Predict the 3D structure of the following.
Amino acid sequence: MKKIETQYKTRVEFYDLDPMNVVWHGNYVKYLEAARCDFLEKIGCTYDDIKDAGYAYPVAKMEMKFVTPCVFMQNLVVKTQLESLEPSLNFKYTILDEKTGAKLFSAKTMQICVEIETRKTVYSVPDVLKKRVENYES
């Protein structure tokens, strides 16, 4: 399987902050979700495409490492890399400061393929996703 990496840009908004004026830890998950949706859109296979094929990919495991707090109005780059497709969808993320390139945060997620109708785990990649990954040209 080829390694694919995309970049998603976002900015820290006021509503992302906690009382200490840094990004609340739970909001990093939002950044990862947005970056993952952007990744799938860029390869031409959105969550809606996967759902229309009868599958879902709920997150089963998430690992996060906080390096330096993100702050209000900071421009971020979220690098999203597909690590593997089978038996689970595994992504690696790195959040960087857009201006300095400093590493602020890293994470990994594991998602399990589930057949929507039966809610049973599927251990192979649905064709709709597999073909898009194979045919992706960066």
